[in-house]
Amino acid sequence: RNMSSAGPEGRKKMRECEGLIDSLVYYIQGAIADHEPNDKATENCVCILHNLSYQLEIELPESYAQSIYMQRRNISNNDKTPGCFGTRSRKVKEKQQDTPLPEEKSSPKGVESLWHSTLIRIYLSLIAKSTRNYTQEASLGALQNLTAGSGPMPFSVARTVVQKANGLPSIRAMLHVSHPAVKKTAVSLLRNLSRNTSLQNDIAREVLPDLVSILPECVPGSDVACETTASICYTLFNLTQSSSQNARLLLSAHGLPKVIAISMNDSNTFSKASRAASVLLYSLWSHTDLHSAYKK
């Protein structure tokens, strides 16, 4: 677990170590099957996988990047984008969301397991069943890592979490835990998921009222709570930017007074949340059909 947080070279060596990732997954599967999701070894295994999934899209060997891209190109001959990882324009990102994703391997080995639906379902199971904060945080964090970026892999994982594995109820429950780091990681994961336009309505329907309910009445005093508040605002921004219906949902959940109060904070120390709330307000005002409701 310590070695897996030793930086890019350490992660690379551990991902390449034959049988290591498979063994970690195997152990966690056994723990879940035996109804023992709270033991320390499971926590360690999940924390290692969490670390090994960090910056995975960027650090994947070129052969994997090419393999995923070639599979996608065979599915959609209209996609002329060279490569698939790295910085992409908004237009390309939208295209990637619309492009069918390649079929998964039925028996993944090694590094391929890290983004496979089997492991995604394991993380969701641990989020739901484990009561260890570190295990919950690492499972959420692994999914957060896998949904970061703009290539086909993050969008594939996001779709699996939301639509195929029905993971939103488990993530939503983590918004209401008392542990600040678990809550922060759950919100960060939802922020990543909410970037995927095809999933926004599902996410809004399932968790938007919960996100509004955990917004504070003003800018919070701690750094972690302030970052969490900023992430909530940016998630709500993603969900409402292109949807008047979702903006109305935020309004009916009594979110507007909270967002206004957070945006009006003058302190320089915790301006991150205020800035995010201001961006959200500006976006909400773009829905002209809601102006009279806002004014009321």
Helix-strand blueprint:
Layout: H1 8-16, H2 20-33, H3 40-52, H4 56-59, H5 62-75, H6 90-98, H7 117-129, H8 133-146, H9 152-164, H10 168-174, H11 180-193, H12 200-213, H13 223-240, H14 244-252, H15 256-263, H16 271-285, H17 291-295
Structure write-up:
With 296 residues, the protein is mainly α. The chain has two domains: 1-63 and 109-177; 196-295. Helices cover 65% and strands 0% of the residues. The protein contains 17 helices and no strands. The termini are far apart. 42% of the residues are buried. Mean pLDDT is 86; it is low at 72-101.
Offer a concise description of the structure.
The protein is mainly alpha-helical and 296 residues long. The chain has helices at 8-16, 20-33, 40-52, 56-59, 62-75, 90-98, 117-129, 133-146, 152-164, 168-174, 180-193, 200-213, 223-240, 244-252, 256-263, 271-285, 291-295.
